[in-house]
Amino acid sequence: MAFRSKELMKKIGGEKNMDAGVKESLKKSLPESKVVMGRAHRGIYAGRHIQFGNQVSEKGGNKTRRNWKPNVQEKRLFSYILDRHIRIKVTTHALRCIDKAGGIDEYLLKTRYKKMDTEMGLLWKSKIEKMYQELGNMEVVLFPQEEENNLAEQFKEMRIEQRAARRDVRRAAYGWSRKVEEIEGGEDVEANHHEELVANS
Description:
Elements: H1 5-12, H2 20-29, E1 43-44, E2 51-56, E3 63-68, E4 72-79, E5 84-91, H3 92-101, H4 104-110, H5 119-137, H6 145-174, H7 178-185, H8 187-200
């Protein structure tokens, strides 16, 4: 799918069949990238695409045509709005832009549609904007301090229960040893073991 305004106007039927305001809005929203690589549509390249030039020899100055491909890496980037990792192909330049913006969400929200020249970037940008709008419409409920403390205590107890359950499963699977209990139990087990040694001596 090409996002260039001229090709889109040809598909619609030319500029004659369009209103004056529609043409201006299309030019504002659509990127005007001349050449977009095929694989660039499947990632976020941040304007880095294949470049062409000459390889010049040192002695004779002979020129040979060559190309430079962008440094593309497959990364897992965490999205706070989607609350999950996104596996996506990005260039190293795009990674620096994402770090500078403060994350993949901020980069997609701040980058204009005109500069987002790939299908994947436009897809994720529209998804993030939709989710961000839904989050903005949600009502925020603030708990009193006592309820927050109660929730924190309940969460702490739940973590302790989960840890104890995992310990019981490990003991059932691999057996029990005093050394493991000393590591998990801490000072109480060491004190009990010391009392047993004193009593036996």
